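Before relying on records like the one below, remember that each one covers exactly one chain. Contacts with other chains, cofactors or solvent are not represented anywhere in the record.
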Amino acid sequence: MPSKNSVKIYVPGGIYHIYNRGVERRSIFTNNKDYRVFLNLLRLILTPKDKLEDNDFVTVKNKADSVELLTYCLMPNHFHLMLRQFNENGMTEFMRVLSNAYVYYFNRQYKRIGSLFQGRYKAALVDRDEYLVHVSRYIHMNPLETDHKLQEYPYSSYKYLLSGKPPLWLRASPILEQFNGADDYKKFVEDLKEDTLRIIGSLSLD
């Protein structure tokens, strides 16, 4: 298992838990528009080029052939992603495009300069199915810090996994294939008897 908050191995086909927070733990999403912009960037970057809408104004490089997104959760001062990279540099290239585009938006929107994130993103290789499902659970449990019910939180992939109707830029099947349907996954996520933090250890990235 990798050491905490670092990437030790860049594996083609590897699945990674990625995390970053605002500098000095400041908010990186201050309102609904900020969340929507970040999610739209994910959509533009990860939707296959031939599936993008005709009226899309695309200003970012498409990386659908480099990575696929399995889960995500956006919180006011941090975000979690879990993705699979198809080639050795897929994750690095994807995160550079996503981070640069969002920082550009945020700094222009709020007339600021300088860093938005607390250094380079953190990532850890998820190298076992047991870790895969528990990391997804850990990511989807983040909104427990808010007043939202998990399934109602608007800035998480949890609702898509339960509905079975994920958008084109989200691939839920690698996680759902570990369960007997969405109801089974829901029970797994919301059964707090499981000690997910103990199981995933350094993959929590906090």
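The chain has one domain: 15-201.
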